[in-house]
Amino acid sequence: MPREPFRPRSDYRHWTPVLTRWFDNDVFGHVNNTIYYIWLDTAVCGWLMEAGLLEVDGEDLIGLVVDTGCAYASPVSFPERVEIGLRVAKMGNSSVTYHLGVFVEGAESASAQGHFTHVYVDRTNRRPAKLDERWRSLLAQLM
Questions:
Q1: Which pLDDT value is given to residue 39?
Q2: pLDDT for residue 1
Q3: Is the peptide bond before 2 cis (omega within 30 degrees of 0)?
Q4: What is the b/e burial string over 24-34, where b = at least 16 CB atoms within 10 angstroms of the residue's CB?
Q5: CA distance 53 to 9
Q6: N or C: less crowded end of the chain, CB within 10 Å?
C-alpha cells in the first residue's frame, strides 16, 4: 500500500533531543516500536511544560490522548542520538493534533513520523473544555 512521503525536517517548529539507551534495542538490534511512542509523548508533554501549559498538579485542563500513530521508514539503534520534531497540525475548540518526526541526529530524512491527538478536558469533570486565547496563542507558534 503506497503512502505519502514523510514530512521534511523544515516542517517542524520545536525540537527535543533524545539519547537512545541500550535498553531501547530489541532482539533485532534496533529500537523497539514501543519506545517511539514514549519519545512522542515526551516531546509533546515536554513542550507543554516548557510553555507553561501543563502543570501535573495544578492546571485546570488536562489532555487525554484520543488518537496516536507512528509509521516507520528506517531503523534507529543504540547508541544513536535522535531529535524529535514537533508541530501542531490542527487545532480545534478543545483538541489539538500534533505531528512529530523522529530524526537521527543531523539527518534530513525522518526515520519515523507520528501523530498524537489530545482532547483537552476539565480536570474535575473530564468534559471537553474550550482552549482559551493563551493556549491558542502558544500552540499557534507550532503551526
A1: 95
A2: 52
A3: no
A4: bbeeeebbeee
A5: 25
A6: N
> Three-class SS string for the chain?
CCCCCCCCHHHCCEEEEEECCHHHECCCCCECHHHHHHHHHHHHHHHHHHCCCCCCCCCCEEEEEEEEEEEECCCCCCCCEEEEEEEEEEECCCEEEEEEEEEECCCCCCCEEEEEEEEEEECCCCCECCCCHHHHHHHHCCC
- Cβ–Cβ under 8 Å, residues 101 and 142: no
Strand pairing category for 81-91 and 95-104: antiparallel
pLDDT of residue 123: 84
Determine whether domain 16-140 maps to CATH 3.10.129.10: yes
